[in-house]
């Protein structure tokens, strides 16, 4: 198994941190302190290192400390006995800079997948409860970490989709339709959509049995669960897509394609979104995230970084015990977790025989 460790992180004007330095252990790193102190922001800084963007604020300037002009995140990683420094820096009005081992990326997408990471946060139940976009985002995140080529396909498709939608909007505003103007977009988007859909289907073949095994453990083998990949990208997609022209014209946007796909979560044949209890939805989400972790680990031959935000407060005793058992069994690699109640974390983790480090956060002191 390939070894990767985040040794330290150094923040400058990132979110609510004017300056902060943290050094980490191989095992469990706990960020403790009252709500609003910056625990989740610290997890987000680690997430930023893996994805070159925030998990919560897509607009980079929103991650700069109030009234400042830039932020930077510096870190050192130990990768296969090599020490590699990473930098992410954003300055107002300038291009974002991301360097790995001193070399700046021309395209940020080249970095995705280099640092596999799984994050579990309280709002993850939105994956089950909210619109299809949340479920696509979850599985696309996994696919992009697994395969750089998939990321390129998705970026190209979304770029063309944006342009095609702008053209359709102009048709609607002028009340004038032109199939000839749409044709170049159709010819480029159709093969991309078919390839992306094929990759999503392949992922489900590998993902589903792993997910079902975790869910079985979490639910004491009481329920049969499934995930159906719902797409209109079929063998007749080329003609179907072109057959939507008039509908696209009337609505001023592209009404068919992989951006409309969904993943239907089922328990005993019924949609979990509509009929699942709160407990079932939480088990579904935990199983999804653990399956994501296992698939990344087996494919990359490397344990992903695991970020756990406020899990002791949001999960029930049964699901907490399950995660703690996995920690104790050594299933995970380096872990970063947050908790507003220090004594609770210390009590939960004291029985786990691994290196632990507790950071009691206070913005009035330097780190």
Structural write-up:
With about 375 residues, the protein is α/β, with parallel strands linked by helices. It has two domains: about 1-115 and about 300-365, P-loop containing nucleotide triphosphate hydrolases (Rossmann fold); about 130-300, RecF/RecN/SMC, N-terminal domain (Glutathione S-transferase Yfyf (Class Pi), Chain A, domain 2, Up-down Bundle). It contains twelve helices and 14 strands. It has helices at about 40-50, 125-130, 130-145, 150-175, 180-220, 235-240, 245-250, 270-275, 280-300, 310-315, 315-330, 340-350; strands spanning about 5-15, 15-25, 30, 70-80, 80-90, 95-100, 105, 115-120, 225-230, 260-265, 270, 305-310, 335-340, 355-360. The strands form three sheets. A six-stranded antiparallel sheet has the order 2-1-4-5-6-7, covered by helices on one side. Strands 8-12-13-3-14 form a five-stranded parallel sheet, with helices on both faces. A hairpin with a 2-residue loop joins strand 1 and strand 2. It is globular and about 65 Å long. The two termini are about 30 Å apart. About 35% of the residues are buried. It is found in: Cytoplasm. Its main location: cytoplasm. Belongs to the RecF family. InterPro entries: DNA-binding_RecF, DNA-binding_RecF_CS, P-loop_NTPase, RecF/RecN/SMC_N, RecF_2.
């Amino acid at each position: 198994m390939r070894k990767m460790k985040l040794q330290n992180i150094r923040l400058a004007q990132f979110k609510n941190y004017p300056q902060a330095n943290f050094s980490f252990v191989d095992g469990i790193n706990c960020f403790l302190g009252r709500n609003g102190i910056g625990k989740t922001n610290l997890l987000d800084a680690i997430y930023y290192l893996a994805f070159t963007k925030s998990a919560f604020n897509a607009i980079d300037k929103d991650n700069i400390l109030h009234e400042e002009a830039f932020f930077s995140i510096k870190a050192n990683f130990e990768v296969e006995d090599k020490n590699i420094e990473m930098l992410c820096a954003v300055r107002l009005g300038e291009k974002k800079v991301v360097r790995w081992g001193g070399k700046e990326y021309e395209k940020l997408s080249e970095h995705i997948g280099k640092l596999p990471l799984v994050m579990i946060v309280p709002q993850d139940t939105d994956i089950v409860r909210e619109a299809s976009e949340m479920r696509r985002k979850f599985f696309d995140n996994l696919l992009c970490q697994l395969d750089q080529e998939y990321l390129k396909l998705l970026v190209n498709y979304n770029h063309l989709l944006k342009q095609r939608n702008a053209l359709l909007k102009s048709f609607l505003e002028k009340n004038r339709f032109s199939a000839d103007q749409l044709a170049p977009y159709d010819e480029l988007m159709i093969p991309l959509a078919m390839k992306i859909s094929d990759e999503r289907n392949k992922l489900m073949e590998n993902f589903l049995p792993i997910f079902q095994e975790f869910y079985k453990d979490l639910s004491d083998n009481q329920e049969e669960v499934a995930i159906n990949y719902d797409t209109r990208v079929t063998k007749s997609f080329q003609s179907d897509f072109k057959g939507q022209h008039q509908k696209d014209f009337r609505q001023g946007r592209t009404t068919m394609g992989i951006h409309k796909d969904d993943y239907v979560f089922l328990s005993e044949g019924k949609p979990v979104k509509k009929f699942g209890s709160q407990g079932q939805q939480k088990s579904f989400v935990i199983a999804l995230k653990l399956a994501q972790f296992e698939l990344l680990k087996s494919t990359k031959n490397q344990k992903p970084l695991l970020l756990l935000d406020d899990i002791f407060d949001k999960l029930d005793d049964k699901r907490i015990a399950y995660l703690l058992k996995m920690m104790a069994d050594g299933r995970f690699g380096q872990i970063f977790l947050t908790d507003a109640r220090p004594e609770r974390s210390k009590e939960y983790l004291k029985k786990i025989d691994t290196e632990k480090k507790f950071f009691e956060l206070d913005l009035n002191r330097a780190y």
